[in-house]
Structure formats: structure tokens, C-alpha cells
Design a protein that fits this description.
- The structure is a homodimer of 331-residue chains.
- With 331 residues, chain A is of the alpha/beta class.
- Chain A has a domain at 6-12 and 61-83 and 97-105 and 137-327: UDP-N-acetylmuramoyl-L-alanine:D-glutamate ligase (3-Layer(aba) Sandwich), CATH 3.40.1190.20.
- Helix content of chain A is 38%, strand content 21%.
- Chain A has helices spanning 24-29, 42-51, 62-72, 87-98, 146-150, 165-180, 192-197, 199-208, 217-224, 229-236, 277-289, 295-309, 321-327; strands spanning 6-11, 15-21, 37-39, 56-59, 77-80, 102-103, 115-121, 127-132, 152-158, 184-188, 212-216, 242-246, 252-256, 259-263.
- Chain A has a nine-stranded mixed beta sheet with strand order 6-5-1-9-10-11-12-13-14. In chain A, strands 3-8-7-2-4 form a five-stranded mixed beta sheet, with helices on both faces.
- In chain A, helix 9 packs across helix 10 (229-236).
- Chain A starts with 5 loop residues before the first strand and ends with a helix.
- Strand 4 (56-59) of chain A pairs antiparallel with strand 4 of chain B, so a sheet runs across the interface.
């Protein structure tokens, strides 16, 4: 195996977030389920946007947030995702490249616009997301460069990729290349409803293709259709090399073979916006894993990055993650 | 005079801000003068954007920020400004309409893209702005609807409008209509370098057309080419009905005929980003003026809104200005 060009290469839905603060009543008026991600079509996106208050546009996309975070820690990183050749596509490309991530997926020159996620943040800091996938439906196997995948220690993919049909093929192609090259494959389950949509495929994938799994409590319980966290933990044990299970303020639990590590969350003064918490947890964890940290230290790096991102609006880190990690004696 | 449909109608350069945090060294490396606004062409905008870190897109434009703030206080407001029919133009239109402002200027369907302002925020909270005027150069007299101007108690215009040549004509047309309808005309000097570019025109305009003038200390000193604030204050006295002169943390001074009011600034815990301070001061002042407040109370409303906007990133208020004003017993 040649030396790696990237610590982590991520594949995901390339999305610009459109964030706005709302009262809880807005969610019920517009039939939006709180705290989760729903897929919407263009008409619904237009109608919801028209009803929303003033917004802020920030690059997002679950996998892209993770990869930008890996680069923020000082890791080498690449990203594959599909935008359109429009202004929001340029914004997305600028922002991820500006963090030092290698991003070369050609934008679509026709078809739907760059994807956007209408993120409604309620006073409790919870975010409810309505995603119009737009150009993401054009991500295909042709966008997977075998040389790039083989050059990454870990190929990381978001579960949301299973929503656009062609992207799923891209996902499977990338996983096969990574494994063929002796590299590792990592999956984030993304969201309990995403798990609902693709439960059997995910379970099979985790057994056969995934080395490192990220899931929060609701997602892992949904995957194995169990009601307790411990049952979920026992169910996932042995299915993949490492499972990193996050539990919001209760921290995270890492399961790897016979090892189990329970790691506390990093406290924040005020939770402003939980968007990106899971994404940034994965950033810290994957950075640690590719830089010789033990599993507990990986989890602490994850918690550190998650704490940073929930203390402000937006799902990309604002602080210098490398400096934070150094201050916490984690690198 | 018929009853007014709007408290305030604003005319300005319709701009989307692209905000990014930088160290001071970035400004010197890229030859950017700190704390002011510079006009740049498209090539320079592209080059600077490529060099900048990840950014956040938020609707801006000095006059638009003011008008959004008037609506935020609960005032009736309209805005005239030119965007292109592109994604950032849609963002601008959405955000200003979502605050309750009437905005009906047709977007340009060819020519340059919607204007953007690259706002670089240094660790001290100061903002240095590089503006590519884009579609704003197409604002013209044809965009001034006489009925709308005549229906506004105050027509408010930003000095920056004198930069694009056709917009200047629109500005003069609007001022003439407002005065002809027995309404008031208000001008913000925008920026000391903007004053430098248009000093004689501004001085003449203030004497002949302007009822309510907004200027900060640097701008009013530049206008009259004096070195002391008191000299500037004496120079402006009598030139227009009301001059509201802002002095950052030192508060503001209102001059009207023989009256002079010195009003303290509202303290903020931490200045995060000074973008929009002057714009929001004008919001509060104009809201007060159209709702029967005395001049000192107008200035306090202005200070309240300015304090809110400098306590977070972006030049549009995040908090509910009406609630803030009620808590402060100002409405």
C-alpha cells in the first residue's frame, strides 16, 4: 500500500444551508417535524423559503462539514459532491476549498440548482431541516476517481447519500475501491429517518463494507429496531471494527471488539444551534484515528469539535480546531 | 398631503455581504485599508474571494440594512435597489421582504451579477469592506416610482448611491419628488472616502435638499474638511433641519436649530462585528422620528439598534428590535 495522500476523503450531498431562527409555532404551522431532516421537492422548498424570515447562507452538507472539520484540525482531506454551476455552487466550492480541502468534482452544467437545506433553528437551539437535493441527484459513479479513493486512509460517506439513487452507486463503487486498496471505509448513519428509509441496506453494508461506523443513539436504535441503547450497543458489537455512538450531552460510547470506552461530552455554556454536532464529532474522531490517537482520545477530539460547532450558528467550525485540540492536550 | 403609506422609503445599493474572519495580516497582504469601504471591480472581487477563508452570506447594503431595521421596530417601510435575476439577487429580495419591507424594484435580466461586499472582520470586531457594485450600476431614474416616494414620510438615501452614475440621477429624482410632495429627505454620508469622492455635491445637497442628515465623526469632518468634531458640528448647524452625528462608543450628538442633544451609546459586552452600526442607528432614529419621539429618544432608539447589530456577525438585526425598544421604555 502506497503512502496516503489524504487522511480522509468524504463523499456526500453538497448542500448550502439557509439558516433562520423561528419560533416553535412556525414548525407546526408548516408541518415540519422538529429535530430531523426531511427531503422536500423544489415547490415545497420555494414555498417554505417564502414563508421563512430573513436567513443566512452557510455552506453545509453533513459529510462536507465533517471533512472541513478534519482539515480544520490540520488533517489532509478531500471531498466529492455535486453542485450546479450557479452562485450557491460557487459558494459551496469556495468555502470547502478555503478550509484546505481538495474538491474537484465537476459541477453540473444543467438540471436542478445547487442543493439547499432550509435549517430552522428554534429558541432551544434545535434545528429542523428541510432539504431540496437539487444537483446532488446527479452525483454518479463517474464522479468517483479510483486513484483519489485509493489515496485516502479512510473514505467517509454519509448515509444521506442513499437518498439520490445514482449517488448510492457512487457510494458502493467508492467502498469497493477503498477496500480493494486496503483502506478503511467509514459510514455515518446521518439521521434516524434516513435509517428507516434504508435499514436493510445499511445493516448489510455495515457487516460487509464498513470499518468505522458513526451513529447517534436514535439512529443505532432505529437500525436494529431496539428500544434501549444497551441493546443497540450489543447489536452493533462485532459488526464493524469500530462503532462510535454519540448521545448528545451524555457523551459518546466507542465499541471496538471487546473494548468499550465511555467518554463525556465537552460542556458548552449555551447551545446556540445543534446543526453539525454529529458531523464535527466525526471530524475529531477521524482526525485522531489517522494521527495515532487511542480510541478514547479520538472520542474526546470528537466531543471537542462538536462542542465548538453547537456554540454558534452554522455547521462549520468557526474556531481554530487545531488550537483547541492543542489547548486540551489532545494533539 | 395624503396620509403616508410608509414611514420610511430607502434607496440604496442592493448588496449581499460575504463575511469572513481574518487576521490583520490578511488586510496588509491584500492591500485593504482597515475599517472602510473600497470599491473593487469584478476581477479584484474574484481574486480576493479566492484568497479569503470560508464565508457566510448575509443580505446587506447600507440603506437596506437601515430599512430592514425600521421594519424590525414595527415601522412601515419600502426599499428601492437593483439586483440581478440570480441566486444572490433572490436571497437579497427574500431577506428584505421577509422583514416586512415592500420591495418591488424589477431585477436586471442581463449584465453584471448581484452586488457583493466582501466584509473582512478582524479580531477587534472592525470590518473592512471591498464592494463589487455589479447590478447596482443599473439602478436608474426609471426605478423611481413617483407614487411610492410621495407616499413615504421620509425618503432615505445612502451616500454610496453617488458611486454608480445612473443611481445618482435616481437619487436626485427621488429627492425632488419627496420635496414636491411635502415629504422629508434624509441622507447618510455612508463613509469618509465616499464623502471624499463627492464632497461638493454632498455639501450642496445637504443645504438644498436634505432635512435629516446622518454622519459619523470621520464623515462630517471630511465633509467640511475640519480636524475637530466641534468645528464639524458648527459647520453643519443650520445646513439641514436635523443632523445626527454618531461617535461610536462615545454616543451621538443631535443638532437641530438651536437644540443640541448629546446621547450616550448603549453598552455592549463584546463588539463582535461593527458592520451595520451606523445603518441601524439610522433605523432607530427614523423609526422614532416617524412615531412622535423627541430627538433625544430618537437617538436612544438609534443607539439601541446599533448596540444590537454590533454584538453579532452581520449587518441586519437578529433580535426583535420592537421588543428591545419596549424593554427600554422607548416606545
Amino acid at each position: 500500500m502506497t503512502s496516503a495522500k489524504y487522511n480522509v476523503l468524504g463523499i456526500g450531498n453538497a448542500i448550502v444551508d439557509v439558516l433562520s431562527r423561528v419560533e416553535d409555532s412556525f414548525l407546526s404551522q408548516h408541518d415540519i417535524a422538529k429535530g430531523i431532516m426531511q427531503l422536500i421537492d423544489e415547490d415545497r422548498a420555494d414555498a417554505l423559503y417564502a414563508a421563512m424570515g430573513p436567513a443566512v447562507e452557510i455552506s453545509g452538507g453533513s459529510g462536507a462539514n465533517t471533512i472541513a472539520g478534519v482539515a480544520g484540525f490540520g488533517g489532509t482531506a478531500a471531498y466529492i459532491g455535486k453542485v450546479r454551476d450557479d452562485q450557491l455552487g460557487e459558494v459551496f466550492a469556495h468555502d470547502i476549498c478555503a478550509t484546505g480541502v481538495s474538491f474537484n468534482t465537476p459541477p453540473a452544467d444543467d438540471g436542478p440548482a445547487t442543493a439547499r437545506c432550509l435549517v430552522l433553528v428554534t429558541p432551544d437551539g434545535q434545528r429542523s431541516m428541510s432539504t431540496y437535493l437539487g444537483a446532488c441527484v446527479h452525483l454518479s459513479s463517474r464522479d468517483i476517481e479510483p486513484g483519489e479513493i485509493a489515496a485516502a486512509e479512510i473514505t467517509y460517506m454519509e448515509g444521506y447519500l442513499w437518498d439520490p439513487p445514482e449517488a448510492k452507486q457512487a457510494f458502493l463503487k467508492a467502498a469497493a475501491i477503498a477496500r480493494g486498496a486496503g483502506r478503511q471505509v467509514s459510514l455515518s448513519l446521518s439521521d434516524p429517518f434516513c435509517v428507516d428509509r434504508h435499514r436493510d441496506s445499511f445493516a448489510e453494508l455495515i457487516e460487509n463494507e464498513v470499518d468505522i461506523l458513526f451513529a447517534n443513539e436514535d439512529e443505532i436504535k432505529s437500525l436494529y429496531q431496539v428500544s434501549g441503547f444497551d441493546d443497540a450497543l450489543q447489536a452493533v458489537r462485532g459488526k464493524c471494527h469500530i462503532a462510535a455512538l454519540t448521545r448528545s450531552a451524555a457523551g459518546s460510547v466507542i465499541v471496538s471488539g471487546d473494548e468499550v470506552h465511555v467518554v463525556e461530552a465537552v460542556r458548552v455554556d449555551k447551545v446556540v444551534d445543534t446543526t453539525g454536532a454529529g458531523d464535527l464529532y466525526a471530524s475529531g474522531f477521524l482526525y485522531g484515528l489517522t494521527h495515532g490517537s487511542d480510541l478514547a482520545a479520538c472520542a474526546r477530539l470528537g466531543s471537542l469539535a462538536a462542542a465548538e460547532v453547537i456554540s454558534h450558528i452554522g455547521a462549520r467550525s468557526e474556531a481554530n480546531l487545531r488550537n483547541l485540540a492543542q489547548s486540551a492536550d489532545l494533539v
